[in-house]
């Protein structure tokens, strides 16, 4: 890693020129991850940033060697920390990096993803204009061959054109399940929240759920340079099929937590509607019929029941197609093939069954399909 001879950063930097404005944490779990690409993209800004790469069960020297080609501007820095905690959970390395942060703002990033040039500058500029404690990044897929920007990821489906003063319910923030963007470190500390230790998936959902409904000011950088999701890492653990009890443990932890039951009813309903659509129904899309034995069916039914118990009536805004899936999930006597066929049918968007709820009085509800889809198109 070598410094550049580039000009100094603008006045976004710290007054003494030594403390970074942002501590950005990247967790790397194998020596094969393209972490140099991620680090280089994070440094492609004029904001003083300290990139902390946490080598998780990886020899730090291998990560250092991977980073040798990265050019570090004189106003920024890169460091490598090591962690061996005996788990495959990303929570440990992210928490280690967050605990080592001293800058006013923090950010996290996947080792196989990257930032579009100037993304971090855009987040900081928006924060300074608005005083936000959280700046939600615009998400997009990387372009063909990993270059440029591809299709936008339409989350969160916030109110059209809304970029400041976002509300967890009114702007459907729960559909953004990862804390991607800028977060005021003091806000994380005030909430006493970190990534959930031990979980291989969903370890970040409690973080964002607590943030979205914390009352902290939130802004959305909906037109700035994007956080780019890369799909070229074959060992990404998010995509591994697991038993339902493991895959959805984070859902149970959240909906059964005391802090969650302290939320207002409308807040719990917003979170639980999203959990049904994205997480409960999501496990039907990548598992074959042979997976669904009695144990797995019972596990899925138990999670769905817990979500419904945490926010009674949250299912009323779901489409008719979604309600049919939900009925099949909670009734384990429904044949597996029928449940999976209903799961496929709910993804055939545009049909009347996917557009309207059973109770037509809920057709214009904020979480009902028509308004949700319209907001998603406008992200």
Automatic annotation (TrEMBL):
Keywords: Glycosyltransferase, Transferase
Annotated ranges, domain Glycosyltransferase 2-like: 25-146
First-tier enzyme category under EC: transferase
SUPFAM superfamilies: Nucleotide-diphospho-sugar transferases
GO molecular function: glycosyltransferase activity
E.C. number(s) listed in UniProt: 2.4.-.-
InterPro entries: Glyco_trans_2-like, Nucleotide-diphossugar_trans
Name of the molecule in the record: Glycosyltransferase
